[in-house]
Give the backbone structure.
Amino acid sequence: MAKHKKLSKADKSRIIEMAWEDRTPFDAIEFQFGLNEKDTIELMRSEMKSSSFKMWRKRVSGRYTKHRKKRKDEVNRFVSPNQY
């Protein structure tokens, strides 16, 4: 059974929102919800229309801000200091 099946509707909605945000890395989703990148992709595939999922995947594939290892070393936070 997939990890995302156990999540509440509100949690799924928040994860999808975070996944769409350009500057929110997959690590932040894993830290907050326990879903790694593969699990997040699986959730997005199951919860979105096929065309929306394909558009999202094309957009985030290779995006350095979505992958902590590809980010600049001085960026060591999940959210902007201006966000809260």
About this structure: The two ends are 35 Å apart (CA to CA). The longest helix spans residues 9-20. Helices lie at 9-20, 26-33, 37-47, 50-60. The chain has four helices and no strands.
